[in-house]
Amino acid sequence: MTMASVTATPTRNGAALRGAVSNRSRWLRHGLLQQLAALRWGIVALIIVGWFVYYPIVDNLFVSTTTQDIFTGEVDYVGLDNYRRLLDDPVVWRALTNNGLYAVLSVIFQVFAAFVLAAIIEGLRSRAWRNFWRAVYFIPSAISTTVTGLLFYFIYQPDIGLLDALLHLLGLQNLSYTWLGDERTAIYAIIAMSQWQGFGYSTLLFTIAIQKIPRELYDAATVDGAGPLRQLFCITFPLTREMTGMMIIVTIAGAFQVFNEVMVMTGGGPNNSSQVLGTWLYEQGFNQNDMGYAAAIGVVIFLATLTTGLLQLWYTKRRRVEA
Amino acid sequence: MQRSIHSTAAMIAAVSVISMSWGAFPATASAAGDAPVADPAAKVDYSGKLTILTKFGLQLLSPYFVNVAKAYEAQHPGVKIELIQENDDSIKGKTKTLVASNSLPDIYFSWTGTWGENFIRGNRAVDLSKVIGPETEWGKTLSPAAVKAFSYNGKYFGVPLYLDAKFMGYNKKMFADLGIEPPKDFDALLKACDALKGSGVVPIAIGNKESWPLVHYLGQLLAYNVPTETLERDFNPKTATFNHPGYIAALGQYRSLQERCAGGAQVNGLSYQTALQSMSDRKAAMYYQEIIEFDQAATKETALKPEEFGFFKLPAPSDAKGSVTALEGAPEGYMVNAKAKNVPLAIDFLKFLTSQENGRTLSAPPYGQPSAVIGGADKTRINPNVAEGMEEIAKASYLMPWLDTVNHPRVAAAWLSGLQAFAGGSMSAEDLLASVRKAAAAAARQ
Amino acid sequence: MSAVVIPAGAPLRNPWLVIGKGVLMALLVAAGILVVYPLVWMALGGFKSNSQIFSDPFALPDRWSFDNYVAAWNQGVRNFLFSSLLVTVVSTITTVFISAWTAYGLTRTQMFGKPVIVGFVLGGMMLSPTVALVPLVQMMQSLGLYNTHWALIILYTAFRVPFTTFLIRAYMLDLPRDLDEAAMIDGASEGQIFRKIMLPLCRSIIVSCIILHILFAWNEYIFAMIFTNQIDVQTLPVGLTSLMAKHGTNFAEVFAAMTISALPIVVIFFFTQRYFIRGLTEGIGK
């Protein structure tokens, strides 16, 4: 069906041919000029990515060793002061905790729950229904977090929002609550919205992984008398392990970059209880006029995403080696 | 250690393919020196583009600047005006982004206090003393107190557009039905709340999702409980102590207000606008609002009719140690960017903006913003409540500035988040003050 | 293809299996309602009056009038939609073209230092936009790009080229080399091979990349919030939040505006689902 599956044999022939061709071309045009000319294929990406992605991030390291007054433009070098302040700042720790909570809960819902849901969907007999459910669950992922954030802001409104109305309808008005207005619940309310929005995406990815499992394995298992749960644990789960590992890493990386939903729904409040690193960076840099400190928070985010990124790299490499 | 980290960073930068000349570092915003001084005799060149950052982004208000700009463009065909209209919440972040990126418009909104001072400290505002000072022709057309509110070190930097102050709006019919008089002191207010609650309405709608609305309650209560000199000393991080007992008293008063008049801790979950809506929908009897919102709370379309709307000053407690004639409020206005290409044109536009005619339009519905122009309110056109409120403002012995714009940003942040915590019940009054003190100490060191 | 994972395809004689299947179906339906209902509520909200939204949240609108939609459209949604379209279309073209170009260079040409370039470009995937925010503010200003569509187009391109290149490169690596090597022997230049052979061969991954990029650009918020400030430059996500703040209590209009901004992307997804899923299968799903 896919190009990828057809490639297996031709590549081997291709490899031999490639060897021959590249030997030949090395003879024909091994000039430095030729190689420089070939650089044109890489230069565009190098420039745009270097200039707008790498350079600001390196520059951010410098900014984090200064205090800057945006009004006067004064820049003072303060060495590691911003980092010392970081260690002392209770909100930074709260933000880290919130990002951590985000990661843990997202892994539970967007990896494990999504996996189960995907297994259920792929168990359906009708292809049309499989497509239908996959598409339905995916819809929120296609919508901007700003829209979903605003929508849930209305849903969570005390007394007048959809959630409280539902609780009243069910006679559970005692559970009615100021979801976004209480320090204890605000971050959970936001995380819940994110799960609502994000689980369809991972469900979709898992259904793809499950589809790649050879059907014969299930047929054989059925002949051997293995029940559906057994098949789930002995075939589906192990054979989608790669995808699961990848999803866990990607989800954690995403959890440390959360910004939009918090910004839209609470702006980090009340009393900074729902602050995450991204929104605290914004608050410090753009509301409290402290670009240097904001940059130091940026470095923390950088380290978190770099770690998960390297983890991902290591995981892919290891997988390749195993395969 | 410091050095080694720095040189590592330098190496990373050096090997990165990108040249440093693309200059985000170091920030070269504005050089030290004196602010440019506006020259009253300068000839105006009526051509080019004028950019303006306003705080009139609210749907109801936004046509004001659009219309004034159109009228000005019609008079001066060579001029093109571009507006960036923000609102109360978005203007803070937006202004700072514009400053940080050196793209502050030619004319920009400013509050008084530390907010405005920042622009002056950074030499980003034109010294308007010679055109708007109290002795000048233009200056004389504006409320003297309002002009003075924008003076720093004896120089005048801002053009006040309107006066603002905080009052308790109330539903006259609900009060009359229960036989309640507008309360004369704080206890009477609490008693009125008890009666209203008994009748099944929310006495005061409080929405503090944005975290600045409570700052306004507290500001007025602080003005009542803490002597003015003490307050002003505490606005400056270098001299601040925040140890007057009036602070604790004011917080205690707010606590009882929230418990007896509002929905308790859930205030943090409601937005300011939603709270306003519940008064307009007749679900709440009172709503603490700015005079500039009188014309929004009750309109022909809302359930609450304009004739049912009344207001009173938040009543002072009987044992107040501060000034009972003080009023929470401040003029708000505009500054001219020191880097504006055509300063005389910007000033000319601001003069046009503060003409008597434009002042009268501003004071009248649907805008209802009490103009700072003397005689800028036509009694026959404006909402009588607005007229009455303007008289109250004129009577006030002291205008207590907003705590979130008069203080250093770090102190302001401590008030904002601390009051949310206080309202939510997770922080005591003492802890809140301790965190404000800590922020002031950190700000003083900066 | 009769996919059978759970429950087993065996005849459902076992009553537990029947019950189990019922429970699973109920779970699917419940999750479906949970997902769809809030969205339906949002779209219906655009037809309601302001007070009805909150006083009677489960009711259908009293009358089906598009007034709120029209009002939202005129209150700036039109401008936001245009900006979103422009930024999305242009940045999609630049991103996908640059990525395909680079991927070709990295898989098929004599370019030297390939491993370094691969590491550099793909490494960009690990870098988060938030971290670059502070320096970018001043950089965009010094380039005179602040508050222009170009700021967003450039940033969306720069931050998405690594990922898009990663997808296309992975696809090209798996493509048989017979065709392009035959062409090379026939004397075709690299540029010709890229245009005439590789691009058509990569059609399906390119379509997927286009869709993925549209999803990203249409919904991006941080950059748009910080680098634009005027109604005719702002994109939908930022425009919406300012609409929400500026329209104070006219929630019906905000609901209408939210629906307008969500609709195009949902429609696009439904029509291109097949490509989208194929792209994910071949790119990430490996």
Overview of this protein structure:
The complex is a heterotrimer of chains A (323), B (446) and C (286). Chain A has helices at 3-6, 8-28, 32-38, 40-63, 81-88, 90-122, 127-142, 145-155, 162-169, 186-211, 215-223, 228-239, 241-255, 260-265, 277-287, 291-322; strands spanning 66-68, 75-77. Chain A is an all-alpha fold and 323 residues long. In chain A, α6 packs antiparallel against α13 (241-255) and α15 (277-287) packs antiparallel against α16 (291-322). Chain A is flat and about 75 Å long. In chain B, 44% of the residues lie in helices and 14% in strands. Chain B has helices at residues 2-15, 62-75, 90-100, 114-121, 129-132, 144-149, 172-177, 186-198, 213-225, 228-235, 245-261, 272-280, 294-297, 343-353, 356-363, 384-395, 403-406, 409-424, 429-445; strands at 48-54, 79-85, 107-110, 151-152, 155-156, 158-171, 202-204, 284-290, 309-312, 326-336, 398-400. Chain B starts with a helix and ends with a helix. Mean pLDDT of chain C is 86; it is low at 1-10. Chains A and C meet through α1, α2, α3, α4 and α6 of A and α1, α2, α3, α4 and α5 of C.
Contiguous runs where pLDDT drops below 50 for at least 5 residues of chain C: 1-10
Distance separating the two termini of chain B? 23 Å
Shape of chain C: globular
- Overall mean pLDDT of chain C stands at 86
Radius of gyration of chain C from the CA trace? 24 Å
Mean pLDDT of chain B: 87
Q: Which percent band covers the strand fraction of chain C?
A: under 5%
Write down the Rg of chain B. 23 Å
Total helix count of chain B?
A: 19
Shape of chain B: globular
Short description:
The complex is a heterotrimer of chains A (323), B (446) and C (286). By secondary structure, chain A is mainly alpha-helical. Chain A is built from 16 helices and two strands.
Q: What features would you highlight for this structure?
A:
heterotrimer, A: 323 residues, mainly alpha, two-stranded antiparallel ribbon, 16 helices, flat, disordered N terminus, C: 286 residues, globular
Layout of secondary structure:
The complex is a heterotrimer of chains A (323), B (446) and C (286).
Chain A: H1 3-6, H2 8-28, H3 32-38, H4 40-63, E1 66-68, E2 75-77, H5 81-88, H6 90-122, H7 127-142, H8 145-155, H9 162-169, H10 186-211, H11 215-223, H12 228-239, H13 241-255, H14 260-265, H15 277-287, H16 291-322
Antiparallel strand pairs in A: 1-2
Helix pairs in contact in A: 4-16, 5-16, 6-10, 6-13, 7-10, 8-10, 13-16, 15-16
Chain B: H1 2-15, E1 48-54, H2 62-75, E2 79-85, H3 90-100, E3 107-110, H4 114-121, H5 129-132, H6 144-149, E4 151-152, E5 155-156, E6 158-171, H7 172-177, H8 186-198, E7 202-204, H9 213-225, H10 228-235, H11 245-261, H12 272-280, E8 284-290, H13 294-297, E9 309-312, E10 326-336, H14 343-353, H15 356-363, H16 384-395, E11 398-400, H17 403-406, H18 409-424, H19 429-445
Parallel strand pairs in B: 1-2, 1-3, 7-8, 10-11
Antiparallel strand pairs in B: 3-10, 4-5, 6-8, 6-9, 6-10
Helix pairs in contact in B: 8-11, 9-11, 18-19
Chain C: H1 15-45, H2 50-55, H3 67-108, H4 114-123, H5 129-142, H6 149-174, H7 178-185, H8 190-201, H9 203-219, H10 222-227, H11 236-246, H12 251-282
Helix pairs in contact in C: 1-12, 3-6, 3-9, 3-11, 3-12, 6-9, 7-8, 9-12, 11-12
